[in-house]
Write a structure and sequence with these properties.
It is built from six helices and 15 strands. By secondary structure, it is an alpha/beta fold. The strands form four sheets. It has a five-stranded parallel sheet with strand order 2-1-3-4-5, sandwiched between helices. A five-stranded antiparallel sheet has the order 10-9-8-12-11. Strands 13-14-15 form a three-stranded antiparallel sheet, with no helix packed on it. Helix 3 links the parallel strand 3 and strand 4. The termini are close together.
Length: 240
């Protein structure tokens, strides 16, 4: 993936079609002016978003006042499973904005939405999403606390009582913990479990076959229970 421009994925959640279309038009204009690649995913309700939500969306733009689950409650559920998505609120009433601190919202935009106000605040959301996209983790290794960039991790392997982080830069780190804990830690960064003993970084997948996946030169057997999920996650990753 070196040298490619990663698409920023943006979800727009609003029960009013005209509002979704307006925000989508603003996003298209912003993308053209900034040269940024955006993928816009519209949702007519918070319930529709939550039905298939998985960590990996970069920015979520919520209308607060919607039928069914409110934008604020939907944002709470998203935040519970995705600590890194950037949240931006649309609202008719400024006093709602203070509730955004609970879900670490980057900002709020008052309706009716003007392009100038939208572009200003969306730029802040993009800046935060960019900082969060490639994060430095502090791993508890047998040699002490070691920082590592997520993009340097090729795959993670269970080895005895430890996990081994195999990196693109060539160093192997023996880490405390179990694979399930680390799968939850790494999932927002594009990692997928492919075997009971392996997690792989989808950005470093070189070849995907029926029963194996090659990551950074290493051929790893794909467990039967993980095949469908790996295919689904990898296709989603390629589309993004």
């Amino acid at each position: 993936m070196t040298g490619t421009v990663r698409t920023v994925r943006v979800a727009v959640i609003d029960d009013e079609r005209s509002e979704r279309e307006t925000v989508a038009e603003y996003l298209t204009r912003y993308a053209q002016e900034s040269g940024m690649a955006l993928e816009v995913c519209p949702y007519p309700s918070g319930d529709a978003l939550l039905e298939d939500y998985r960590p990996g969306m970069d920015i979520l733009i919520f209308d607060i006042d919607m039928p069914g689950i409110s934008g604020m409650d939907a944002a709470r559920q998203v935040r519970a499973q995705d600590p890194f998505a950037v949240i931006l609120f649309l609202t008719n009433m400024a006093q709602y904005a203070i509730c955004g601190y609970e879900v670490e919202a980057v900002d709020y935009i008052l309706k009716p939405v003007s392009y100038y106000d939208f572009a200003l605040k969306f730029r802040r959301a993009v800046q935060r999403a960019t900082r969060r996209r490639s994060r430095e983790l502090l791993l508890d290794t047998v040699e002490g606390k070691v920082p590592i960039q997520t993009e340097d991790i090729a795959y993670v392997e269970t080895m005895g009582h430890y996990l081994t982080y195999h990196t693109v830069s060539g160093r192997d780190l023996r880490v405390r913990g179990n694979l399930r804990e680390h799968e939850q830690l790494l999932r927002p960064y594009g990692f997928c479990q492919v075997h009971k003993s392996f997690l792989v970084n989808l950005s470093h997948v070189e070849e995907l076959r029926a029963n194996t996946v090659t990551v950074a030169g290493m051929s790893i057997v794909v467990g039967r229970a993980y095949k469908s999920r790996l295919t689904e996650e990898y296709l989603r990753f390629l589309r993004a």
